[in-house]
Amino acid sequence: MQQPLYVLAESTQRTSGADARRSNVAAGRAVANAVRTTLGPRGMDKMLVDSSGGVVVTNDGATILKEMDIEHPAAQMLVEVAESQEAEVGDGTTTAAVLAGELLARAEDLLDDDVHATAVVEGYHEALRLALDAVDGMLVGGEVDREALLTVAESAMTGKGTGDIATGVLAGIVVDAVLQVADDDDRRVNRDDIRVFTRTGASAAAAELVRGVVFEEEPANDNMPRSVEEATVAVLDTKLDVRSGEVDTEYTITSVDQLDAALSAEDAERRTIAETLSAAGVDVVFCSKKISDPVAAYLADAGILAFSNVKASEARAFARSTGARRLGTIDDIEASDLGTAASIRVEKHAGDDVTFVEGNDDSRTVTLYVRGSTDHVVDETERAVDDALGVVVAAHEDGEIVPGAGAVEVAIADRLRSGANAVTGRKALAVEAFADAVDAVPRTLAENAGLDPIDALVDLRAHHDSEGVAGIVIDGPSVAITDPRDEHVVDPVAVKREALESATEAATMILRIDDVIAAN
Predict the structure, then answer these.
(1) pTM
(2) Among candidates 442, 485, 477, 479, which has minimal Cα distance to 461?
(3) Whether residue 45 lies in the annotated active site
(4) How far is CA 36 from CA 19, 32, 272, 445, 463, in A?
(5) Nearest Cα to 273, choosing from 249, 296, 247?
(6) Which among 267, 327, 329, 477 is placed 20 to 30 Å from 96, CA to CA?
(7) Out of 60, 91, 379, 386, which one is annotated catalytic?
């Protein structure tokens, strides 16, 4: 009798066919449902508590999914969708996750009706092409100027962080930050030139834009000045102390005079460091390596403000902000190696020293100084500011925006249903399923706003048919189905495109899986 052939280890768990599909779809839907209630201006917050008792309160989709302890591989793929959305455009993470979950749910119904997974995948890709065409048809005309960017930023932050109390203030400094560092020729923005520094102890409305760098560091010596105006700046990547040789060397000292001479030589070398910097006209030193205490004392005597062991990222920011070169030695230092700053000051904020390095009006590095009454408020406000920075950068670089408030999704669903007739075979069913999945976004917005989702969808479709654009606009306590452009609710087109593409790619990849083999 033929013996059975075991290819896999006995401890291996294998799930095939419909069971594998149902498991993956259920995991994807669970991820989408975890963030669904956070969507929109009326979205709710989640409180996430880790094993050590740490608490995170947020309605940011990417943060929620990152903090959740997700193990299922299919669910992890949807988490990666949100992370990709966050990395590319900074916002729309919840939309992408909800859309991916809905695509899986609608596909499961088709698979249960014996529509092959390949037909569903091909239909979804056809639907994606039609959806992107619909997005392009919704572009808002006109130049994306500062006023347009302000509406983009406010739309992104509404319902996040501070409960809209400081949305206008934050939107203003976000837009000014992007415009400050944007390239004048190609509108490109280096996000590394925009820093965010947070501190508790004031309301979110106390946030400010610093044209330069803000960092938490105290002077290398207590006797150094705490404020310098019109400062000449040196950025150093070298240790400020007595130089040591490349090899270990021992010296034999046989008398007190020899010891005094050695100590005097070292002291003279340390004093020379301060004299060299002072003679070069340096007022402030940022050093990425150690400044010894004796050298710091001599720098203080020379009236020089110095900071020791600054981070490499901060040293780069200081150089960008002040125009200084990063120097590996102070020998032969020249005026062209130094930068300038309008003001450098050290202030006490919430009991800690906070240093403000304010460059000139053409500074290529800026810092958003974000405040908040508690740590939780500061953290959520920082996430809101990060989202706003992402969408403002995307809108400024692309120069394209579309109506928000679910209007684009309503237009996509309408385009897909009308275009499904031109799709042959069972792929047409997948195109219609894609339209139903996209409807989940305005339906969820309506539900989170307290409206009946079915009635809201009916009204949205009717308004879209008659006016061409329809969204769920929330203004304080009022909710209206109208043209979002009239209420200045807009989104960058890059957010919509990225959400559609990443959600479709993740859903189709999961749908093509018919066998899950897991080692124990």
Answers:
(1) 0.79
(2) 442
(3) no
(4) 25, 6, 64, 9, 25
(5) 296
(6) 477
(7) 60
